[in-house]
Amino acid sequence: MHHDAVRIEHGYHLIDTRAWVRQRTGDPLPELTDAVAEFTRHPVFADYHRQLDTSDRMQLWCAARGWTTSAETSYYHDHTALTEPVRIVLAVDADRAAYALVQIGDDAPAVFLDVTTDDASWLQVEPVDIACPGGHRWTWLNHTALLDQDGTHIRFRDLFSRRPGAPYAECRGCLAYDNGDRDDPCPCQSRYTISCPTCEQRCRLELTDVPTFPARVRS
Ligand SMILES: [Zn+2]
Ligand SMILES: [Zn+2]
Fold it and tell me: Which superkingdom is the protein from (predicted)?
């Protein structure tokens, strides 16, 4: 799942913010989205005594509908691993239905059902999974630590035998072509990759799973 959600670049990787949001939300809710977008660009905010950012405006819109929000469940991520910054306001209506109001980059805000079982999933930005076609898989938590498939912590330098945070490699086929060791260009899609520390096959990066309510996940 989410095969193009994490792209390996030259010595770093980028998480597609839209895929990250999609992993945590159900179907978009067009009528509510239109309403919140219209509200947040209302001219009254231009004259307001204090500048209200989009998170403030999304919270006001929720309050006017009788939805509950809180500072603890309003987030702004501009992590360098994300393609675009994202603002999130989580809200609950009178029937306890859970919503996520989301603004990606400078887009108009949108309203979705929140499908996560735990608000903390909205704080989870950094982990990505290293997925090997040979069936090996790790959750790469941060610069120094990973989890294996049994959930056991592994130190980065024990697995990759090199400096923390840099498992990136260049495709051997591309390098061989550069060096004149092969005649035809390498057919791979990107020369930047991660080599499996167990079997040396090309790995990809995927979004680390977050727990969700299956009934609310997108159709
Ligand atoms: Zn290649
Ligand atoms: Zn492998």
Answer: Bacteria
Residue 215 pLDDT level (bands cut at 50, 70, 90): confident
In a domain, 152, yes or no: no
DSSP the chain: --TTSEEE-SS-EEE-HHHHHHHHEEEE-HHHHHHHHHHHT-GGGGS-SS---HHHHHHHHHHHHT-B--GGGEEEE--TTBSS-EEEEEEE-TT--EEEEEEETTSPPEEEEE-BSSGGGGG--S-EEEE-TTS-EEEE-SSSEEE-TTS-EEEHHHHHSSSTT--EEE-HHHHHHHTTS-SSPP--S-SEEEE-TTT-PEEEEEEPP--B-GGGS--
Give distance in angstroms: CA of 90 to centre of ligand 1. 42
How many whole angstroms from 2 Cα to the centroid of ligand 1? 22
165 pLDDT more than 70 = no
Return the ligand number nearest the Cα of 189. 1
Q: What is the CATH number of the domain that holds 75?
A: 3.30.1300
State which residues form the domain around 92.
17-117
pLDDT exceeds cutoff 60 at 164:
no
